[in-house]
Specification:
The protein folds into two domains: 117 residues, Aminotransferase class 4, branched-chain amino acid transferase, N-terminal domain (D-amino Acid Aminotransferase, Chain A, domain 1, 2-Layer Sandwich); 169 residues, D-amino Acid Aminotransferase, Chain A, domain 2 (Alpha-Beta Barrel). The protein is built from eight helices and 16 strands. The strands form two sheets. Strands 1, 2, 3, 4, 5, 6, 7 and 16 form an eight-stranded antiparallel β-sheet that branches. The radius of gyration is 20 Å and the shape is globular. It binds 4'-deoxy-4'-aminopyridoxal-5'-phosphate. The site of 4'-deoxy-4'-aminopyridoxal-5'-phosphate has 12 residues, from helix 6.
Length: 319
């Protein structure tokens, strides 16, 4: 029996075409993915709208899910349409108004050689109610730190794919940042410029420009980031995609993390530990408090995801 202690309101998950009670366990400990991180996943959110819960940019997330699967050479046992329908089904079955949705595909039980020749690909979808990913830091602004370890480089891994194994770096550095008393980690890339957070992209605001980086800087180009870039002109902001230097971040008017889980989460202070955790300098970003442009963007984003802005209804998938 598995309790749902940290999965608020989760009652059922969808696994290989059928619904199961959340407490039912059905996996083999020798499954390939558990040993080598040979999985791929998505993080999607659904928000309440006047017409019931709607999944934000479901198609883009499922497209990325299938792209990730192709990078790790998985043959997906369902069509994109079936996976989209299954995401909606899980929301309905759990009677969730707002939800974090986690489709996960993995090499399952078969063989344990590194090449999963005899390990079938299986798919599971869970959903639960999940509040602010960065907790209270989402409100007061994050006190973040640049960690000493550089982000895995784009020349080493295809970072456009969300692969389980790749996230080990995010987990280790996320833990280390918190062990040192910070809310979140920031990775530099091998070039020494700002890459991203462990599970978030980074944007800086300077003189009316919304500035973020792209795949060449060793990041996952997030769907939230792409949405904000498209919305920026509505708010009188000029979108800019270019490398972000440390100086760009430290000298920004405002800065924030963005991602499906983190949504828009201000960064108000950054300590630079790029030369080691015993050698850091702290920089206050802007006023040291969440800034007005970030707040306006967060408000605009909230209106979009909850169906209050007709211009972006194209991004909503009613369940
Ligand atoms: N970078 C990384 C490493 C992530 O895991 C995520 C979350 N998927 C993001 C950026 C933001 O992506 P998205 O906006 O698509 O959630």
């Amino acid at each position: 029996m598995f309790p749902n202690t940290y999965f608020s309101k989760a009652k059922k998950y969808w696994y290989m075409g059928k619904l199961y009670d959340w407490s039912e366990g059905i996996f083999h400990p020798m499954m390939h993915a558990l040993h080598y991180g040979t999985s791929t996943f998505e993080g999607i959110r659904a928000y309440p709208t006047e017409r019931g819960p709607a999944i934000f940019r479901l198609k883009e997330h499922i497209d990325r899910f299938f792209h990730s699967a192709s990078v790790i050479k998985m043959k997906v046992p369902f069509t994109k349409e079936e996976v989209m329908e299954a995401c909606k089904l899980v929301i309905r079955e759990n009677q969730l108004d707002s939800a974090y949705i986690r489709p996960l595909m993995f090499y399952s039980y078969g063989n344990l050689g590194l090449v999963p020749k005899f390990s079938p690909v299986e798919l599971i979808i869970g959903a639960w109610e999940w509040g602010a990913y960065l907790g209270e830091a989402a409100e007061r602004g994050s006190n973040a730190c640049i960690v000493p370890k550089r982000r895995i480089h784009i020349s080493q891994m295809d970072l456009s794919a969300k692969l389980g194994g790749t996230y080990v770096q995010s987990t280790i550095n996320g833990i280390e940042a918190r062990e040192h008393g910070y809310d979140e980690a920031i990775f530099l890339n091998l070039e020494g410029r700002i890459a991203e957070g462990p599970g978030e992209n980074i944007c800086v605001i300077k003189d009316g420009t919304l500035h973020t980086n792209d795949r060449n800087e060793s990041i996952l180009e997030g769907i939230t980031r792409t949405s904000l870039l498209e919305m920026a002109p509505d708010l009188g902001l000029k979108p800019k995609i270019a490398p972000i230097t440390k100086e760009d971040l430290f000298g920004a008017d405002e800065a924030f993390f963005c991602g499906t889980a983190a949504e828009i989460s201000p960064i108000v202070k950054v300590t630079d530990f790029s030369n080691g955790f015993n050698n850091g300098q702290t920089h206050i970003i802007g006023s040291g408090k969440p800034g007005p442009v970030t707040s306006r963007l967060a408000q605009a984003y909230k209106e979009v995801v909850t169906g209050k802005n007709p211009k972006y209804e194209k991004w909503l998938y009613l369940v």
